[in-house]
Design brief:
The chain has 158 residues and is mostly helical. The chain has 5 helices and no strands. It has one domain: Ferritin, CATH 1.20.1260. Helix 2 packs antiparallel against helix 3 and helix 3 packs antiparallel against helix 4.
Amino acid sequence: MKKIPLLILCLVITAGFFGFCCVNQIQQDYAGIYRGAIHLPAFFPSENFLIAVQIILLALVGIAVWFILERQINPNRKKNVLINTLILLGLIFCWNFLMFNTGNLTGALVLVIAGIILGLIVLSMAWLVDHRAGYLMIPINVWIIYLIILNISLTVLN
């Protein structure tokens, strides 16, 4: 019975808190990304699709964190994975902030390039702790690669 409240807590922190912050940035869209202030490439996702993908990916990270917390391993190793995962979640929020609040395309590009490096580190660390957690980190890394391509095209177009 102890496992379910921990899973709910992980999902509330990742998909709930970070998801709310990211969705809020996208919906406010102070930079006018979806209102035509910036030329968008043809493959730029719609607002609803972007929100849905980010919530799903953050939920997958929450489940991966739950797998890591459930594993009986060295506490320092577990702490290192969780801290790096938290930094990755903060990086995702910062990308949303730079993109949709300030419209800083170059800063967002630099951030996602750092994000792929951190994402691969988190993926390998999570995989070493629990293979299921590592597999759940693969979609977030694929998404970050897509964001790199998206940001490069946005920077070139604008």
